[in-house]
């Protein structure tokens, strides 16, 4: 079957379990062999990939037609109280963006930072200012990869849906990474077809229809408590209603990339991909296609 135009591509973050080693290069080929279409390179523990490997990963992705994104290091905090730490975070984000671009990734996802002792309003201002500087350098260097600020699952982390959408609306060149497991875990809500549609409509209202046509999405099962996200789970082990979620994405015509971050990686990614395509076929069969 030909992949439907304008639909969602499915992939995973990191290295598939079925890979015999932990190289990103092998991961690209394996993603395609598994029947998946996207891979998020994990720079989460630091920028360890050299320029030569980045070039090879880029070529492999082109050959295998795998859509690449990347994830910046976890220790970035654009709201760090220490000025030096804040500047290091900006540098690290820029270097991650340069590396992502060199490796052929179209998007770099990052966690913006923590509130610490600051109010959400003050944190928002600080992060906005830090990002303005990063975006301006990225523009002057004409870096091709786009920055994607992620919706975060822990309440101590900056990145509610509203914060992320406002920031993206205000800063040219900044796009969201919609992590629906995080959006769910942060408040323990947003877990029905209607809730998911509301989130999607909000994205459209704040950022325009184009944001839905080039969405970058993270998903996994999730364990949470009153502080928000605790850990990722496989979808079957979690309360997350992924069937209603996929139906909402399809009905709203969302296109782009879905990256699976369940512990089972390819198992959940493939399950979602298959479910998504069966929903689409049903829609086309019943004549309710757009
Ligand atoms: Zn993340």
Index terms:
single chain, 290 residues, alpha/beta, TIM Barrel, 8-stranded parallel beta barrel, two-stranded antiparallel ribbon, 10 strands, globular, binds zinc ion
Short description:
By secondary structure, this protein is α/β, with parallel strands linked by helices.
Please, could you describe this protein's structure?
This protein is of the alpha/beta class. The chain has a single domain (8-285), classed as TIM Barrel (Alpha-Beta Barrel). Helices cover 46% and strands 18% of the residues. The protein is built from ten helices and ten strands. α1 (24-34) packs parallel to α2, α3 (83-102) packs across α4 (120-140) and α9 (242-251) crosses α10. The radius of gyration is 18 Å and the shape is globular. The chain starts with 7 loop residues before the first strand and ends in a 5-residue tail after the last helix. The mean pLDDT is 95. Bound molecules: zinc ion (ZN). The site of zinc ion (ZN) has 4 residues, from loops.
Give the topology.
Blueprint: E1 8-13, H1 24-34, E2 38-42, H2 51-64, E3 67-71, H3 83-102, E4 107-110, H4 120-140, E5 146-150, H5 161-170, E6 174-179, H6 180-187, H7 193-207, H8 209-213, E7 215-219, E8 221-225, E9 228-233, H9 242-251, E10 256-260, H10 266-285
Parallel strand pairs: 1-2, 1-10, 2-3, 3-4, 4-5, 5-6, 6-7, 7-10
Antiparallel strand pairs: 8-9
Zinc ion binds at residues 71, 109, 111, 150.
